[in-house]
Amino acid sequence: MDAIITDTYSVYFNEEGYRALNQHLKKERYSKLFVLTDENTHRDCLPVFLSSLETNLEIEIIEMEAGEVHKTIDTCVQIWHALSELGADRRSLMINLGGGVVTDLGGFVASTFKRGFPFVNVPTSLLAMVDASIGGKTGVDLGNLKNQIGVIRQPEMVLVIPGFLTTLDKRQLNSGFAEMLKHGLISSGKYWGDLKDIKVNDPLDPFIHTSVRIKNQIVLEDPTEKNLRKVLNFGHTLGHAIESHFLEKGEDKALLHGEAIAIGMILEGFLSHRVSGLGLHQLEDIKNTFLERFRKVDFTEGDKQAIIDLLKFDKKNTHGSINFVLLKRIGEAVIDQQVSEDLFREAFAYYED
Amino acid sequence: MDAIITDTYSVYFNEEGYRALNQHLKKERYSKLFVLTDENTHRDCLPVFLSSLETNLEIEIIEMEAGEVHKTIDTCVQIWHALSELGADRRSLMINLGGGVVTDLGGFVASTFKRGFPFVNVPTSLLAMVDASIGGKTGVDLGNLKNQIGVIRQPEMVLVIPGFLTTLDKRQLNSGFAEMLKHGLISSGKYWGDLKDIKVNDPLDPFIHTSVRIKNQIVLEDPTEKNLRKVLNFGHTLGHAIESHFLEKGEDKALLHGEAIAIGMILEGFLSHRVSGLGLHQLEDIKNTFLERFRKVDFTEGDKQAIIDLLKFDKKNTHGSINFVLLKRIGEAVIDQQVSEDLFREAFAYYED
């Protein structure tokens, strides 16, 4: 598959990715490599990854604990200390080998250690391949507030190796698939249709490539999220609040990111129907498509109230009002839609119906 | 005094500064203002500052504990939580009212909260006026390692109000004066001479202006410190290690930043004499000038060893070698000078002599 090349960084696929990284390591005179993993990618992905690296540089492995609950400043502090002790400097390179938690956190750690040194993302989850690892958003959670602390900084390059997906369970794969479906909803009705038709054993590679291309185009036109890039937040305003809320309730209740935004997309689909003209037939299509893949979650009255309360902390709000990205139709999103709180209850009722 | 205007931000002086800030607040549609102070600037500077502000925006005051020992990630976490609770968003403005600890830490907090919102620096110490508040270096210490964590991000503007200096004691003033003397050493023999001639009651305003202009010129030619900007680190490689070491020994032993780099400049002046051709007469001039203003510090054998050990953590090192900025003569610096560890002992001996 063709590399997706931009003026600031490039996304390479499969063997071409390893070739590009090895060339990059030969060209840049890095002082040392640091590979950030969690215990899962350390076991499942690191051996394959290291065997494909061709370099004489010293390589240090840093392992963090897996899971969203460890996407915290405390974990950053541990890694910053490790980097200090292992002699990292501004000419070091960090390679983030993992899912979205590892690429988001690793990117932030590298961007802030000694005021920033370069990093490469090697996403190992579907979610990270099509979303987290590209676009330059780095960061960690603050308490139960998702991605509250971070910076925008682009990686040197991104390597997408779909072979790593064989290490994921079905729930993890589905979580990433939710973001791919979002790419269809916000920018291509045809892609949405293609994704719905995928059979269990179809290779995902060409679809991953399409999703990366869609996300990349959007990000490059508006890297700092002043306008267009906001469309990527479809499903995420309510989705993030849902994710934060269940994260706070404890690990056994926690939803994966894609599971939360799948619900967010149904709810915000309903808001789109009421506010921005999304047709009822398309709304039903969205709801049915997600409910085929994601089990329905039961919300108590307390859950719903807590989620609505959390919305006001969402980082996409300005001047205290609640801003949404909504759909005009499948394949076309519209930003900066003001939605009144009354509709949230109706949206939950539609989801539960 | 004329404002110093660049393409990314401007430095304004005195009344013109307040006028510029008030105009800026009228033009930009900020959602809310946050003023970060410490207990000293809260008491001594905030009332004057607020009385000069003309805005209808809501203003929240956030106070941190004063002093370098609080320039930590823990303090950032407290302020990030406060910002969340007080409803800060990406359209908020942070105003950092304080010395270098407040402007460095406040700039980092703003640059990383929700992936960054704008900030203005209002330095209240001489050191912050001529150094910390301009140039876009933000950050905090990690353990005893100075400024280990941070980003480079420019403020919207800097307001220099020399009237705030009346709240400083002589030791604090001297600390800032050390950076001004450095500006002379690295870029203007004439300015160095002028500074040496200042009498106790002479107004500092024109000299502050000259120092800001010198620093600004250097920073703008090389904002991310790839080459030229490194000259600003003269005296800082050993100076930072000295500062970190005494900070670790506890607050009663701690040196102010300028006190540490004054020693650093004598030591690195000696290295310049031995490595880069600084004449003995000029070296003596440097030593005498600093020792007139800064009391001599006693270093034990253990102190010296610990300081030399700390050097390898200094963020200006790459590939493990020890890089210095040295002087060819007073008024001209040269970067990327490799110095062997043997000379450090001799440099200390020259200082102690």
Automatic annotation (TrEMBL), chains A, B:
Lineage: Bacteria, Pseudomonadati, Bacteroidota, Flavobacteriia, Flavobacteriales
Function: Catalyzes the conversion of 3-deoxy-D-arabino-heptulosonate 7-phosphate (DAHP) to dehydroquinate (DHQ).
Cofactor(s) it depends on: NAD(+); Co(2+)
Keyword Acetylation recorded: no
Enzyme Commission no: 4.2.3.4
InterPro entries xref list: Dehydroquinate_synthase, DHQ_synth_AroB, DHQ_synth_fam, DHQS/DOIS_N, DHQS_C
Protein name in UniProt: 3-dehydroquinate synthase
This protein's record includes keyword Lyase: yes
Record's keyword terms, sorted: Cobalt, Lyase, Metal-binding, NAD, Nucleotide-binding, Zinc
Domain 3-dehydroquinate synthase C-terminal: 176-317
Domain 3-dehydroquinate synthase N-terminal per the UniProt entry, residue ranges: 62-174
Pfam families associated with the record: DHQ_synthase, DHQS_C
